[in-house]
Q: What sequence folds into this?
């Protein structure tokens, strides 16, 4: 549905305007991308062509915002050559493609449990000829292997093991899970240069349950956090990771929601 003209002049939309030169410079078909990015129209699937040869097929306009965050705003930073990356919450593969296509000889292990997202992840790997660099797994990551209930949201980037969505009448699917230990052991990963997590609340149980011997193999952690109750909050997680030998590089709260709800955290091994 097309937005009202007055919506174009909202503070959020005006903030997006500073990225227009970057979008025009970096994307060949920048006109539909910009329309999607400012949510002026509700577009369906689209194939965006970056001027450096990368292609990204999207599901809906929320994916253009994810592209902007990863490719232009560098929410999860750059990736050095010869890196090993674990992408938890890979969604349709935007970060996995970014990591593998913007660095040389990088290997990405991408984990995404939801079927539609996973199928689009496979397509994005294929159209970028990255089958030898990005290894996809239709799995969620949690404290342990087995099956769990994944709560589905209308927005394909917000399916969650933790958050239910009343407007979907708690619609869910059963999905298979693996642990961080499983990821390292089954893929014979000796060192993880970047552990990226965007998993809608599961980041706490994933990290809290990871044995010390695997933390020793992780150099960098970059995650989006989603505060909950008890120990599942960012201050408890920061305290935990500092004890594991990490230091904070970047800590940014998302002001779009309640100040403490979610944000971005980067850490590096001391």
A:
């Amino acid at each position: 549905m097309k937005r009202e003209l007055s919506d174009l002049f909202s503070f959020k939309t005006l903030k997006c305007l500073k990225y227009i030169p970057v979008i025009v410079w970096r994307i060949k078909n920048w006109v539909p991308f910009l329309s999607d990015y400012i949510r002026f129209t509700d577009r369906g699937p689209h194939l965006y062509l970056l001027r450096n040869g990368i292609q990204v097929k999207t599901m809906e306009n929320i994916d253009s915002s994810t592209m902007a965050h990863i490719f232009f705003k560098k929410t999860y930073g750059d990736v050095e050559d010869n890196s090993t990356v674990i992408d938890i919450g890979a969604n349709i593969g935007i970060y996995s493609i970014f990591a593998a296509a913007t660095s040389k000889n990088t290997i990405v292990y991408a984990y995404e449990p939801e079927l539609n997202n996973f199928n689009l992840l496979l397509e994005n790997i294929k159209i970028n000829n990255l089958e030898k660099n990005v290894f996809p797994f239709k799995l969620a990551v949690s404290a342990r292997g087995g099956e769990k209930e994944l709560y589905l949201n209308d927005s394909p980037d917000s399916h969650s093991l933790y958050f239910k969505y009343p407007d979907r009448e708690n619609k869910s699917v059963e999905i298979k899970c693996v642990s961080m230990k499983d990821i390292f052991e089954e893929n014979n990963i000796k060192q993880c240069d970047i552990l990226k997590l965007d998993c809608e609340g599961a980041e706490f149980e994933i990290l809290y349950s990871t044995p010390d011997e695997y933390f020793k193999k992780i150099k960098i952690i970059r995650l989006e956090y989603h505060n909950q109750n008890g120990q599942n909050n960012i201050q408890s997680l920061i305290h935990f990771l500092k004890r594991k030998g990490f230091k904070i590089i970047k800590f940014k709260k998302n002001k779009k929601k309640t100040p403490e709800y979610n944000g971005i955290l980067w850490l590096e091994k001391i």
Observations:
- The first strand starts at residue 46 and ends at 49.
- DSSP finds ten helices and twelve strands in the chain.
